[in-house]
Structures are given as structure tokens and as C-alpha cells.
Design goal:
heterodimer; A: alpha+beta; five-stranded antiparallel beta sheet; four-stranded antiparallel beta sheet; about 65% helix; disordered C terminus; B: alpha+beta; OB fold (Dihydrolipoamide Acetyltransferase, E2P); 3 domains
Chain lengths: ~650, ~170
């Protein structure tokens, strides 16, 4: 009954979204106030009816309703409740429902936080978001309905959620990532709306900037969490595999980062307008492309669990409609966008342009590396794979000028500046960078590699120049400490995000170059020395859980004679899905992680063990968190509070 | 040419230069990092049974196949392991040192990446098995179907329930 209610709510949502897509847009075109006024209530209605559908699916999982096919495939009565609930987005159908529910959530958020926007703009934006949801609702209803029943012969118990996904990571990772993906639809809707009217002013940039920022924050957190999850759950100790699905989330992130920076130019200087619109379209298209790549199953990936070619074809068609449609609109209306561009060659604008160029280069590298195997195969040239070294090399090359630019950029004034103004600090920083670039790796790890030195140099230059910029800005009018308190939140945000980049680069440089990874064969009482740490194997004991049987290995870690940690690495055999899973044990530290994973038993009482020492690996994720924090600070800046904008407007 | 055009030309040339350098670097990096996929029979007989299409000794390749039952041999002292993979046809030997993935089992489909050290011996740097008990790597599945159709082996035999699986189940 509840499942039918959910199904009904889905159908109702489709109807509402069709009206939402037609009426307000038509009203905005004709200047019909009544139709425009329908946009808000219909958006709330859509959100409400999809919440009912979403809730129905939760309910089906909570009460173990095995007459619903999706529940059968992804749940089991032995599964703990929190995993049963997060299993809602554990596979294709449910994650699409989550996706579309979030789309309407963003729509509802736009509707309620944009009270001060002109009614026409709101009507258009919400109408376009309705248009997007039609496509996804059709998709959910006709190709991947989560409420399909198993009648008449429904099974007694379900097949269980993939054990890999039975983790706290699953509870948060997909929702965050999807919030990010879907959030770019708001920036997209704002852009399309402005293309329709041909009005692209700084006010437009000011409205869409916090929304883009919000989406970007979610995407950043989603990626960070996914990377951390892969690190501790997959048991390989890696944090990024250049897997096509990871790339699919990185591409919109790169486009989104470029969009944020180009929006800054549009807001402050009224330039780059057409480019910003194009970037907004690109970012959202890449989000859709990501869905296509993940869900169509054309990719060979650890993430490609369930897949179905007809679904892939549908998403491909949808992709063509969205990208083709918006680009056509852009082709016809784009020339109406005029930028007042009167900046000189050496100015903040040019720096941000370079930033965009480098981000786009990185994006095309990822795109090429992800799609080339696909194209190669479709052309009948055989199956190939592109290894991680390709991406690593390319990103090293791209990041080096990017880091330097990131340091210098904020020091350059808008419109016109002279390099001589910052020559001394830049020269001093470069000298310090060269010294520290060789000094710090030597001091901390006692050996040098090219990429480690480069990475440390990048991190150092970003930190030095960011701090110098902070000092300059704070002492602009008053003393340093009073100046600090007067800085705007968005300025702090920028500094936090840029320092986050430095932290991530630092973490990558150290963990990629100085990690020690040893696969060893150990008997009880054996010990292995890695750097300063002695790993002693104490034996394996039984450790069973509600839906698995398992063993737990104890490994004590000593520095000299002092015990540093006791780690318990597990191996689990999930009885329903008959899958073996490794649960790694990690002793985390500020400057290093110690990682133990249990391999198989080798007979004669010895076990295969995987022992890792990973310096500064946490910094990769700390950096990501800092970036997100920076975004949050920017978003909460005074100038984006809409009441304030309106007050300013009425004063003008 | 007026100065405005001249400066624009400079910018355009600069961008073109940048793009071509980037493209060149990308091609260079790609060339050394593309790994071709082979099945064991392709390693032995060459692609499309063309002996000139065999991978050379020293080449980095990916091989996908099924672990042949009874061929997994472990070293008593270290984590070295040797096993054969095939795709119904000739098999090749894979050497690997390290921990095998959780789902590595005899009869399971795997993908090994590494260097060919002898015409039929692969020194693997990585062995992948998918997180699904009936998993056949799609790339392998396709290749196998191509090879097997003429031999009268159905794809159902390769995935999930083969006749042997059913017999085993009945025996249990």
C-alpha cells in the first residue's frame, strides 16, 4: 500500500513538474502575473509530493517490505537499521529518487530564499528547474521505478546490500555528492533564465553566486568523503584511483571551481559574462554526463554495480536535449550579452582568466582520460585502459603554474596594475620557496624526489603569498590586528580555501612520495620494522557480526620500546551475499597514518598482512575541508544577504 | 596593423602556443600510459589469431581471464604466488607478489596488469577481482563471447550459473 502511495506520488510529481515547466515560463514571457505567481507554490508542491515518495521508500526499507523488488535487491532483515535506511540510495533506482528529491529541495530553497528577487526571474528559474525534473521523473517512472513489486511470489528475505556499502560512509557520501551535482542545476537555471531575457547584469551574478557556492561546497565535501571512504573501506590504502566514476565527480568540480572564479569577475567587474554562462551550462552538463557514465554501465569501474543499456540510452538522449538545447539558446541569445571589458593585460581579470584556462586544461585532461578508452573501444580499436600515471603526470604539470598563479593572483589589483608593486615580496617568496622546497622534505623524510620537492614548493608559495596578501589587506587602512577584524567574511573564505589547496598539495606530495607499503607474511609474534615503527603481529581472534562471520587480527605498533597503538584489522565474510570484505585498521595521526589490513590465511599459522606508513595523508582531506569551509565563509558574506541588497537598491 | 589588433594577435598566438604545448604533452603522457587489453588466447595466438598482433616481451599489458582451478601455487616463504589464467583455450601464467584481492578464487574472473616477461608469463603489478561473485569483467565477457560463440559455449555458462555450478549445487 505504502509503495503504491509512493508510486502515485511520483506520478503526481511528474504532473506538477509539467505544469511548473510550462505555466510560469509562459507567464514570464507574456508578463502574466498570475501564472508567474504559480511558480513558488508549485515548487513547494513538487517538493512535498516527492518527499512523500521518498518517505515511502524509506518506510519500505524500514519495515523490510520484501514485496518491493528494490528492497529485495538491496536489503536484508539481518541488516542493521541505519544501513537499511541508507540502502535507499545504495543502488540505481533509489539514488535517482534521491537525486530528483534533492533537485526539488534546491528548487524549494530557491523559492523560499529569493523573496526579494524580481518575480519574473523567480518564475523563469523555477520553471527551468521544473523542466529539468520532468526529464528525471520520466526516467525514474519508466526505466527505473523503485516501487516495482515482486508479486505474486515475493521472497522471504532480501539479497542484502553490497557489503562494501555497509558503512557510515555510504550514509553521507552519496547525499553530499548528489547535493553538489544537483546544486549546479540552480546555477544552470539562473544562466538559462538570463539567456532567455538577455539581461545579464552584476545583480544576476550576485544572485547566482551563493547558490553556485553552496553546490560547490556540497560537491567538495562529497568528493572528500568519498576519497576518505575509499581509503579506509576498500583496504588498498589509496585515496584516489582515477577511476572513471571518481573522474566523473571531479570534472564538475573543476568546472564549478572555474565558474566560481569567473562569477567573481562578473560580479565585481561586469566582464566574462558570456563565458560565465557557458561555464554554468558546462558544469551542469558534466554533472549529467557523470550520471550517464556511472549509470549506463559503459564504463569499467568499481562503482558500476548495476547497469542497464536502455537506461544509458535514455540518459544519453536527455543529455543531448539539455546540452543541445541550452547551447542552441546560447547560440541565438549569447551575442546579446555585452561585457564592459576595459581591463589591462596585467590585472586581476587576467589572472582569473588564466585560472580558468588552467582549470579547463585540467578538465580536458580528465575528460580525455575518461572518455578515450570508450571512444577507442567504440571505434573497434580494442580495449585499452589509461593508467593513473597519465593523470598524475598531467596534474603535476598543470598544478605547478596554477600554484604560482594562485599565490600571485589575489595580490594583483582589478583593472590595472604593475608587477613592480609586488616584485619584492614575490622574489623573496620564490627564494624561500626554493629553500623550503628542498629543506622540508629533507628535514621530515631524509630523502628527496622530484615530485615531492615540486609539491612542497607549490604548497609553500601558496601559503607565503596568501599570508602576505592577508597582511597587506589588513594593514591597508589601520594596524594589523584591527585590520584583521575588519576583513570581510568572503576574504577570509578566499584565504581559507587557498590554504586548503596548499594543504591538499602538501598531503599529496608527502603521501605519494614517502609512503611505505609492505605486503608481508607473518606468524604470531613476528614483527616488521617500517621507518620508526615496529609492527608486531599478535594473532587472529574470532569476531562475528549480525550478518557476517569474521576474524580480527591484532597488530601492536611500537616506537622503540614504547607502545604506540594496538590495531585490530578485520576480515569479514558476509553470509548472505557470500562476499569477503577487508576492514582496515588505521592509527591516524596528524603527521602520519599507520594502516593495517588483513590478507588471507596462508596455512601453517601465518597470515598475509598489508602494512602501510603514510605521512601527512590526512592533510589531503583536511585541505578539502578547508576549501569547503572557505566556501561557507564566502557564502555567509554580508553582501549576499538579500535583504541588504534590496535596501541598497531602494537607497539608490 | 593597428596596435589593438596587434596586441590581440599576440594574445591569440600565445593561447595557440599554450594549447599546442598542452596537447603535445598530453599525447606524450598518453603514449606511455595506454595499456592494451588482451585475453590469454590473444597473448598466445595474437589478436584475431594474427601472429603479428601478439604482445611483445617487455610490453605492459592488461590480461583478463579466469583463474584455472588447481594452478594457484604459493611460495612457502614469501607472498609470491603463481597461477594460470585462461579463457577456454590456451592459458598463460601470472606471477604476482603481494596480497590477492578478497574475491580472488579459482574459477573467478580477474584482470591482471603488468609486464610480459616471457611470451606466456606475465609479471603482474596489480591483480583485480570485482566485488561480485558472478562477475565477469565486461571487457573480458565481450571478448569471450566473440571467441566462444563459434565453439558453442553460451554466455550463461560464463556468467553465474554454468552447468558445473548447477551440478555442484545439486551435490551439496
Amino acid at each position: 500500500m505504502i509503495a503504491e502511495l509512493g508510486n502515485y506520488a511520483l506520478a503526481l510529481s511528474l504532473a506538477v513538474s509539467v505544469f511548473l515547466a510550462i505555466l510560469p515560463l509562459w507567464g514570464a514571457e507574456r508578463g502574466n502575473v498570475q501564472f508567474m505567481a504559480l511558480a513558488r507554490p508549485m515548487t513547494y508542491g513538487l517538493f512535498l509530493s516527492l518527499s512523500v515518495a521518498f518517505g515511502a521508500l524509506f518506510y519500505a526499507f524500514a519495515v523490510n517490505d520484501f514485496s518491493v523488488q528494490y528492497v529485495v535487491n538491496n536489503s536484508n532483515s539481518n541488516l542493521p537499521l541505519q544501513y537499511r535506511l541508507s540502502a535507499v540510495w545504495g543502488a540505481h533506482e533509489g539514488s535517482l529518487l534521491l537525486w530528483i528529491w534533492m533537485l526539488t529541495l534546491w528548487g524549494a530553497a530557491v523559492a523560499s530564499f529569493s523573496k526579494r528577487l524580481p518575480q519574473e526571474a523567480v518564475a523563469r528559474v523555477l520553471g527551468i528547474m521544473g523542466l529539468i525534473s520532468i526529464g528525471f521523473l520520466l526516467f525514474v517512472l519508466f526505466t527505473s521505478n523503485p516501487f516495482t513489486r515482486t508479486f505474486p511470489d515475493f521472497p522471504v528475505d532480501g539479497r542484502e546490500l553490497n557489503p562494501l556499502l555497509q558503512d557510515v560512509g555510504l550514509i553521507f557520501h552519496p547525499p553530499l555528492l548528489y547535493m553538489g551535482y544537483v546544486g549546479f542545476s540552480v546555477a544552470f537555471a539562473f544562466s538559462i533564465a538570463s539567456l532567455m531575457t538577455g539581461k545579464l547584469d552584476t545583480a544576476w551574478a550576485r544572485w547566482s553566486r551563493p547558490w553556485t557556492m553552496a553546490a560547490w561546497i556540497f560537491l567538495t565535501l562529497g568528493i572528500v568523503l568519498g576519497s576518505w571512504w575509499a581509503y579506509y573501506e576498500l583496504g588498498w590504502g589509496g585515496w584516489w584511483f582515477w577511476d572513471p566514476v571518481e573522474n566523473a565527480s571531479l570534472m564538475p568540480w573543476l568546472a564549478g571551481t572555474a565558474l566560481l572564479h569567473s562569477l567573481a569577475v562578473t560580479e565585481k567587474r561586469g566582464a566574462f559574462k558570456a563565458w560565465t554562462v557557458l561555464l554554468a551550462i558546462l558544469a551542469f552538463s558534466l554533472c549529467l554526463l557523470g550520471t550517464f557514465l556511472v549509470r549506463s554501465g559503459i564504463l569499467v569501474s568499481v562503482h558500476a554495480f548495476a547497469s542497464d543499456p536502455t537506461r544509458g540510452l535514455y540518459i544519453l538522449a536527455y543529455l543531448v536535449v539539455v546540452i543541445g538545447g541550452s547551447l542552441t539558446l546560447y547560440a541565438f541569445k549569447g551575442n546579446r550579452i555585452r561585457s564592459r571589458d576595459n581591463s589591462e593585460r596585467y590585472s586581476r581579470e587576467s589572472m582569473l582568466l588564466l585560472n580558468n584556462i588552467l582549470l579547463m586544461t585540467a578538465l580536458s585532461v580528465v575528460l580525455l582520460g575518461t572518455l578515450l578508452p570508450l571512444v577507442h573501444k567504440q571505434l573497434g580499436l580494442g580495449t585499452i585502459s589509461i593508467g593513473a600515471p597519465f593523470f598524475d603526470q598531467m596534474f603535476l604539470i598543470i598544478c605547478t603554474p596554477f600554484a604560482l598563479l594562485l599565490g600571485i593572483g589575489p595580490l594583483v589589483k582589478w583593472r590595472r596594475d604593475q608587477f613592480s608593486a609586488i616584485r619584492t615580496p614575490v622574489v623573496v617568496s620564490v627564494i624561500l620557496m626554493a629553500l623550503l622546497g628542498f629543506g622540508l622534505p629533507l628535514l621530515l623524510q631524509h630523502k628527496l624526489t622530484v615530485s615531492a620537492v615540486l609539491g612542497v614548493m607549490m604548497a609553500v608559495i601558496i601559503v607565503l603569498l596568501s599570508l602576505y596578501e592577508l597582511h597587506q589587506r589588513a594593514t591597508h587602512r589601520c594596524g594589523f590586528w584591527t585590520g584583521l577584524t575588519k576583513l570581510s567574511r568572503s576574504h577570509w573564505g578566499m584565504i581559507a580555501a587557498h590554504l586548503g589547496v596548499a594543504m591538499t598539495i602538501w598531503g599529496v606530495a608527502f603521501s605519494q612520495n614517502y609512503s611505505v607499503e609492505r605486503d608481508v607474511r607473518m606468524k604470531v609474534g613476528d614483527s616488521v620494522q617500517i621507518e620508526d615503527y615496529r609492527f608486531e603481529f599478535k594473532g587472529v581472534t574470532e569476531a562475528n557480526g549480525p550478518n557476517y562471520a569474521g576474524g580480527k587480527a591484532q597488530v601492536d605498533i611500537f616506537v622503540g620500546d614504547k607502545q604506540e597503538a594496538a590495531l585490530f584489522a578485520e576480515k569479514r565474510f558476509y553470509t548472505v551475499s557470500k562476499m569477503t570484505m577487508t576492514e582496515a585498521a588505521i592509527d591516524w595521526g596528524f603527521t602520519r597514518d599507520l594502516y593495517v589490513a588483513l590478507g588471507e590465511s596462508l596455512g601453517d599459522g601465518s597470515w598475509a598482512l598489508r602494512l602501510y606508513y603514510k605521512p601527512f595523508v590526512r592533510w589531503i582531506w583536511f585541505g578539502g575541508l578547508f576549501m569547503a569551509l572557505g566556501g561557507l565563509l564566502c557564502m555567509s558574506d554580508r553582501r549576499y544577504r538579500f535583504s541588504k541588497i534590496v535596501k541598497e537598491k531602494t537607497n539608490e | 596593423m593597428n596596435p589593438r589588433r596587434k596586441s590581440r594577435l599576440k594574445v591569440v598566438l600565445f593561447i595557440l602556443l599554450g594549447v599546442s604545448v598542452a596537447a603535445g604533452l598530453m599525447m606524450y603522457a598518453l603514449r606511455s600510459n595506454i595499456d592494451l587489453f588482451y585475453t590469454p588466447s590473444e597473448v598466445v595466438n595474437g589478436k584475431q589469431n594474427d601472429a603479428s598482433q601478439k604482445p611483445e616481451v617487455g610490453q605492459r599489458i592488461r590480461v583478463g581471464g579466469m583463474v584455472v582451478a588447481g594452478t594457484v601455487k604459493r611460495d612457502a616463504e614469501s607472498l609470491k604466488v603463481r597461477f594460470d589464467v585462461n579463457d577456454i583455450g590456451p592459458s598463460i601464467t601470472v606471477e604476482y607478489e603481494g596480497i590477492l584481492p578478497d574475491l580472488f578464487r579459482e574459477g573467478q574472473g580477474i584482470v591482471a596488469q603488468g609486464t610480459l616477461i616471457e611470451p606466456t608469463v606475465l609479471q603482474a603489478s596489480e591483480v583485480l577481482a570485482k566485488h561480485d561473485e558472478n562477475y565477469v569483467p565486461p571487457e573480458l565477457g565481450e571478448q569471450m563471447e566473440k571467441v566462444h560463440k563459434p565453439m558453442g559455449v553460451s554466455s550463461a555458462d560464463l556468467k553465474g550459473e554454468s552447468e558445473r555450478d548447477q551440478q555442484q549445487k545439486e551435490n551439496q
